[in-house]
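Sample A.
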Amino acid sequence: MKLGKQMMLVMAAALSAAPLASEEPMMETRVGEKGFVSPPATIDQLDWLVGQWAGEGIQGAPAMESWLPPVGGTMVGTFVQETPEGAIMFTEHLYIMQEEDSLVMRLKHFNADLTGWEEKDDMLTFRLVAIEPCAAYFNALTLRCADPEKPGEGLVAAVRMQSGGELLFRFDVMN
């Protein structure tokens, strides 16, 4: 099996995993207890996320993430993970949306040929666990400023893997 295909299977399994019972203290991600209630939040609290970000991704290969300003209570984002050889490994289409009095992130994965990982009408959903002035902690997925004192200069994104580890992405602002 090709390395790219293996990574896609690992990512798909990780993102569809059920929350883990225990957390390690140095994890970037947070996991809500069974039946947790998402905290109140508005899309305007994520204004620090708007922009284009680039950094190292899986296997040290380049990765990029972009977020548009909110429209109608929704922020639209994209993620591109390259292979070490410089081709597209996979992409994600991301929405952060107002839902009831909180936020939810929904996403779909696509192979380099634009075929989807999830079924046609399916998507992954990450409910908000906690929000801070420069961080949004969704269930098993984190987006936060690299330095809360300098919003807009760096972004950290992390996703909890089924194995208990994390995929961690550190991005700088693209000029």
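Sample B.
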Amino acid sequence: MQNTKDRVTIYQVAKAAGVSLATVSRVINKQASVTQATREKVENTIIALGYKPSGLAQALATNRTTNIGVIIPSANYVYISNLLSGITETAREKNYVLTLFSTSHNREEALAMMEKVISTHVDGVIVYDDQLLPEDIQTIASYNVPIVVLDNKVVGDNVGDIHFSYSASLRCIINEYYEKGGESPMTFLHVHNGGRLLNRCEKVFIQTNQELGKEYRVINSDDSYTRTYNEFREYFSQPENHKGFFICARDSLACAVQNAASDSGLRIPEDVEILSLVGTKYAYIVRPTLTTFHIDMHEVGKRAMYMLTDLMNHDLIDRSAHFDATYVQGQSTKKRLKEEN
């Protein structure tokens, strides 16, 4: 049994009034290019049918769809979910709807998603994908689509960018480790297809250790808690690996290393220290708590959406925003630095 009345559409209004969709849209948006007689006929039809205008009517008149495309690598990561939360909150405030385009760690797939974005005729795009190159981003911009890109430097009239900075904080951690008596070589977990951010951090890690004349290790790791845990249970079974400082891409991998060390009878942080580059809520849930770098991705999402709406309205003055990673001391490392507030 039908308990609710079917929603009346703009198509039904146009058909009942004997006019085009564009005419109905112009009446709804109070544009002057409609005769008085036609306007009254459409308005009376709207009242008779009980029509409630939607974004489609506005889109027909303004050539805007109120639709924003968002390209992300995956919504499974907590920090991506936080980003989407910020974008969604601001999109709702600005009366925009979102279409998500999720990619894997694959540049070809990301490029294919960009083609889909263009074909959907969105009003603007927010892009956060570590596999895309600046010239790839320019592809969307060349179609005159306003775009805000995260962690990728792109210059253009229709482009804004938000950049993440980890280099200074990571250098400081490495320097302080050795200045405060760190003896074991530091180890960086390299994740295949980890993206530009992780690659930049790895380069800073290698360069800083080389400048200090220190030995260091880079260990290949899967982007998987289970596989990383199993690999490090085997790693910590060797006596020569019972000491160390490990820098991990994100909390899930840091938890894998930490749990493997604890289950191997090693002490945190007396024997093994762990730092997570991308801190999330899991850093506070796990015991011992994780030391991390933190960027408020919810705030990043809000800023990205505000920048995009200003860009679409030709009101964006500062086309570049900057978020520095802050150091958050947990129990997984010895206290050497003051926590940033």
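B remarks: The radius of gyration is 26 Å. Residues 1-5 have pLDDT under 50 and may be disordered.
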